[in-house]
Structures are given as C-alpha cells and as structure tokens.
Design goal:
Pfam families: 2OG-FeII_Oxy, DIOX_N. This is Fe2OG dioxygenase domain-containing protein. Belongs to the iron/ascorbate-dependent oxidoreductase family. Keywords: Iron, Metal-binding, Oxidoreductase. The strands form four sheets. The protein has an eight-stranded mixed β-sheet. The termini are far apart. It has a single domain, classed as Sandwich (Jelly Rolls). By secondary structure, the chain is an alpha+beta fold. The N terminus is likely disordered. The chain has nine helices and 17 strands. It binds 2-oxoglutaric acid and fe (ii) ion (FE2). The site of 2-oxoglutaric acid has 11 residues, from strand 8, strand 10, strand 14 and strand 15.
Amino acid sequence: MEVAGNQIRVQSLAQNGTAQVPPEYIQPPDCRPNVLPCPNTLASDKSIPLVDLSGSTSDVHRVLGQACQEWGAFHVTNHGVPIQLLDGMRKIGITFFEDCPMAEKLNYSYEPNSFASEGYGSRMLVSSNDTVLDWRDYFDHHTLPLSRRNPSHWPNFPPNYRDVVLEYSDHMEALAQRLLKLISESLRLPSSQIGEAVGDFYQNITISYYPPCPQPELTLGLQAHSDMGAITLLIQDDVSGLQVLKDNEWVNINPLSEAVVVILADQTEIITNGKYRSAVHRAITNSTNARLSVATFHDPAKTRTISPASKLISDSSPPRYRQVMYGDYVSSWYTKGPEGKRNIDGLLL
Ligand SMILES: O=C(O)CCC(=O)C(=O)O
Ligand SMILES: [Fe+2]
C-alpha cells in the first residue's frame, strides 16, 4: 500500500481489489446514498435548469434568476469556453490519475498539516476526528491571483498539463466574472455589484478522481456540502455521480459534455441576502467506473468582509446574515467540517 504522510490514496485501495471498504469510509446510515426508507436519499428524475447564454439578455436574466433562486445550480451552454479546452482539461486529468505512476504522483502530495494546501491528496483537512473519509483522490491547483500561481507545483505529466491548466484558469475566470454580472443584473442590481463585493478572485482548480468503489451503497465520493466561496464552475466526464439537494431530494446532475455546471456558493448567498441560495451537493460512487470532475472555485480574499448588499435590504427585507471576514468563514468551515449548510446557517440573524 502506498501512503504519503499517513494518507492512503483511495486509488491504491481500489486497485488492491478490496471487496469491503475500510470502516473509516463507511457513512452513517442517514448519509448513505440510495437507502430506503429515507425518502431524501433517493435520486429524483428531475434535472437542473439549463441556461443558454446565447439567448436574449432578458431570457438569460429570467432563466438564470429562477435557477439561482430555486436551485443554486444550473448548466450553462454557449458559454464561450472552447469545448476543446473542456475536453483537454478532462484528458490531462484522467492521464495524470490513471497513467502517471503512483510514486511520481506522490511527489506532488499536498502538505498534510496545512489547510487547503496545493497538490495531490485524498483527505480534506478538517480538525474534527470523527469525519468519515471521502472515496476520492484529488489534485488542487492554486491559480489566482497570479502571486499564488506557480505551475512548477503542478504535474507535467502529460507534457501539456501545465499549459492546459493555465489556459483553463483564464477562461474560467472570465466566465465566472460574466456570470456574476448576469446574476447581479437578474436581481436588478448594477452589473458590477456582486463582483465588486467579492473583489479579486482567489481561484483554485480541483480535479477530483473517484475510483470504482466495491460498496457504493455505504460510501460517498464527497460528502454533502455547499461550497464556501462565491461561485464554482464544474465540468465532469461521462460518468454520473454529482447530485444536488432540491426540496429534500437528491437530484442527479447528469453529464453534459459541452456544458459547464454553475454552483452558487455561500458568499453569493450572503451578498444576495438569501435571495439566491448556495446549492448543497455531493458526489456518489459506483462499483464499475472511475469518475473525474474539475471544479474551479472563485473565492474572495481572506481579508474581505462579506455582507448582504445594501440595495437588497429594506424594511420588508431585513438583513438575514451577519457580516463575516471571509478568512474567518474558511477557518470555521475547516474546524467544523462541511456537513450541508451548517456553516452559513451559523451566520443567520
Ligand atoms: O466531483 C464533483 O462532481 C463534486 C466536486 C465538489 O463538489 C467540490 O470539489 O467541492
Ligand atoms: Fe463542492
């Protein structure tokens, strides 16, 4: 078994051909997928809305506004990011995880003693010891601001890996800015309102790799959570696994190779004073196919203070959240662990 800093890579476990997952990966019964009789663990046949960005501005505002209000997650198409680049990103990810020898992958291991460090890892670093482990390996890249970006920390297997990540980072930043403008406009705010409240993006790109799991009914690839920053842009391969919670039901976000999944995160919920909600989502596993996703997170700087936009506050719509320094929000997230929306709920007034 190959281990880095006491951390076992899930891929090594899966390749060992184990028929039973180790106990630290077994979810408590109420968090397991597809378990009867708890109705909210069954996946529904609904699907998230699709926003076609080539539509008329008024259609885009309407469909996107409704998607943000009701789901906090939606697909976008005609988004301007070359489809070839989406495919290129999936390709370098799968090549790194599946074709790069484990010994070489481990050279890029993240720093196990610091929060959200860059590199190859398995365990999200939360302080609480009772956290069940996710059936997932990942590679996290720090891509923005430029002062955090150091491509020599990233794999160069395959040889175009770093170039693809650089190009992808720029396209995702532009798309995130465009979406925050549309989101602001859909609330009849000045288009720069949410973007200015967030400030310059801290962008991280996380490639997640979920090996086949011998007991998918007992595990989660990634436990239920809402993302802590402002907006997440995600692509996936053709294997299902991502689910979003809607009206107490888990809904599959089925793969659409040319679309980007947009997931509103907690700071956008705070800035919009809860008019738009961050989406609770999770990843489930399966016993036959490995799954890959690429999530690009856009967050405020740790020193940024986030509060509900004053234009959305009135006598009939009082502030719902306390203001928070983003760095404090992140520390509390890592101390308490994700678990649904308990972090943002801690700011409710
Ligand atoms: O793999 C996925 O589809 C979900 C990834 C995710 O939610 C995350 O990294 O925060
Ligand atoms: Fe997420």
